[in-house]
Write a structure and sequence with these properties.
493 residues; binds flavin-adenine dinucleotide; 17% strand; six-stranded mixed β-sheet; Polyamine Oxidase, Chain A, domain 2; 2 domains
């Protein structure tokens, strides 16, 4: 059924096997093949993708334990009042090498180009803001700079440099070519735009390694959104996974593994509600932030030191969305995109969280803002009233107009939610791809060096695609393939 759909899709030529090892394509369990018992921890995109792949290979004995009451994890679409608000992921790139684009094509989802145009840059002097032609110059310079940074191979550098180090150097070179009055405004436009990049990574650019952004452009398609909501991407996965395989409100507290007693299960999982599950393979897909805060107590015996070092070394960034609703919107429907021009110390200094906001988006009667980096954690601790007041003051300062308070405010809370503890992983100044590789490596019991028990997936384990939906999905499929291969080997096929 799925294959039929995708053959009908225009431009969709490569089958799912582009990300599937061919030798496993025809392998199914059942008949004389003994099926292992698999437990998947987490029903985010990685966990669901692994489950879908196992289901398509005929596996029946797998269970997903999800701590919350919903699937999707960091895909969280909130639909109400004719509005679609994305609290988590909101775009992906077109292109046949992007597994999310392929999923959207299979599902025949209508897609929309993400309006990431230059727009109008507001300055603290109020409207009309920076001249459009000057904003366009700054926007073009920054886009080229970012694209060069993406393509730059800094892996051979002796000293690991931060994204900000690279950018600062290039920004100074670019500004030196401009005349006086133009220079100051272009400078503010460019530093305002660095907040966009900060939101993509989730941390101050001085703390993110240039290795983090290297390769981001290799997937060079257009950015697209799903107007009906990103949660629709999950539908094709859920159709293939038996509903009874997903167990909700099952926060896994401990995973005991590698017991020496031959009659004991290979792994035993205990949930917060005291229910217990036995498994031959445990696929852990909880976010890196959760591993950072619970790995010490979750695994018994402890994880190998190389794994715990990787968990420590990789970074967790922060990104929050804030939506302010107005009973009587004060803007016209066809509003241009507004962005904030900033000075360098405003963006990089210890200023308040509102200084990390790069632009304003509109969803009907609602304004949407993104707050990123450590300042997003700061904001999460503020009350809704305080957040509304700060954002209203920001709008008043940058427009020079009296702007009303919103009638309602909604926002994500990825840091205080103990099932996430942050937005996405990043490569910091103390981490590299070896840590990502180690995080995604399987863990074996001492007495069984050929057959691992603990497997790891999730965006943070995806080399070259961490912090993305594509990375999460391919990591889940990668580990499902590992289970298929191990099952083949155990059955001596
Ligand atoms: C605000 C925001 C914006 C983003 N924007 C984009 C974007 O535009 N494009 C893009 O490609 N990516 C984006 N991302 C990243 C993308 O959302 C993630 O990379 C991806 O969804 C991660 O999927 P995952 O399966 O690895 O983890 P998750 O989706 O986090 O799934 C992990 C699951 O584990 C569960 N869990 C945690 N602890 C336990 C436990 N103890 N027991 C059982 N279950 C547990 C959680 O509840 C969760 O459901 C964004 C992320 C955020 C937060």
């Amino acid at each position: 059924m799925l294959r039929q759909t995708f053959h009908r899709c225009k431009g969709f030529r490569r089958p799912l096997s582009t990300i599937v090892n061919n030798s496993l394509d025809d392998f199914t369990v059942g008949g004389c093949v003994k099926e292992p018992k698999v437990i998947i921890i987490g029903a985010g995109l990685a966990g669901l993708s692994a489950a879908q792949r196992l289901a398509s290979a005929g596996f029946k004995d797998f269970t997903i334990l999800e701590a919350s009451h919903r699937v999707g994890g960091r895909i969280e679409t909130f639909c109400y009042d004719n509005k679609v608000l994305e609290f988590g992921a909101q775009w992906f790139k077109t292109g046949l090498n992007n597994s999310i684009f392929n999923l959207a094509m299979e599902e025949q989802l209508a897609l929309q180009s993400d309006n990431n145009s230059a727009g109008i840059f507001l300055s603290p002097e109020g409207l009309p803001g920076i001249r459009q032609s000057v904003g366009d110059i700054g926007y073009t310079i920054f886009s080229e700079m970012k694209s060069k940074l993406n393509k730059m191979d800094c892996s051979a550098d002796k000293v690991q440099r931060s994204v900000l180090d690279y950018l600062n150097l290039r920004i100074q070179q670019e500004l030196a070519t401009l005349s006086g009055p133009l220079q100051y405004d272009v400078y503010r436009v460019i530093y305002g735009l660095t907040n966009d990049l900060k939101a993509e990574i989730g941390i101050d650019l001085s703390l993110a390694s240039a290795l983090d952004v290297h390769g981001m452009a290799s997937d060079s398609g257009r950015r697209v959104t799903v107007p009906r909501g990103m949660a629709n991407l999950l539908a094709p996965l859920l159709r293939e996974i038996p509903a009874e395989s997903v167990h909700y409100n099952k926060q896994v507290d401990t995973v005991s593994w590698g017991t020496q007693v031959p009659t004991s299960p290979r792994a035993l999982l205990m949930c917060h509600d005291t229910s217990a599950y036995e498994a031959d393979y445990v696929l852990v897909t909880v976010p890196l932030g959760v591993l950072k805060s619970t790995a010490d107590t979750m695994f018994c015996p402890s994880l190998p030191s190389s794994k715990t070092e990787a968990i420590k070394a990789l970074g967790v960034g922060h990104l929050h969305r804030v939506f302010m609703e107005y009973t009587n919107p004060f803007w016209a429907g066809d509003q241009p995109k507004y962005r904030f021009a900033r000075c360098m110390d405003e963006v990089n200094g210890p200023k308040g969280w509102a200084s990390t906001i790069s632009r304003i988006d509109y969803v009907n009667n609602t304004l949407a803002f993104e707050v990123s980096g450590q300042q997003a954690v700061e904001m999460e601790n503020c009350s809704n009233e305080h957040v509304a007041m700060e954002l209203t003051n920001l709008l008043r300062q940058y427009t020079g107009n009296w702007i009303p308070f919103p009638s309602n405010l909604l926002r994500s809370r990825w840091w205080t939610n103990k099932f996430f503890r942050g937005a996405q992983s990043y490569l910091g100044m103390q981490s590299n791809v070896e840590h990502q590789k180690e995080l995604g490596s399987p863990v074996f019991a001492h007495n069984d060096p050929n057959n691992p028990i603990l497997l790891f997936a999730g965006e943070a384990t995806s080399i070259g695609s961490h912090a993305t939906l594509h990375g999460a999905r391919t990591s889940g499929i990668r580990e499902a393939h590992r289970i298929l291969k191990l099952t083949k080997a155990q059955n001596k096929i």
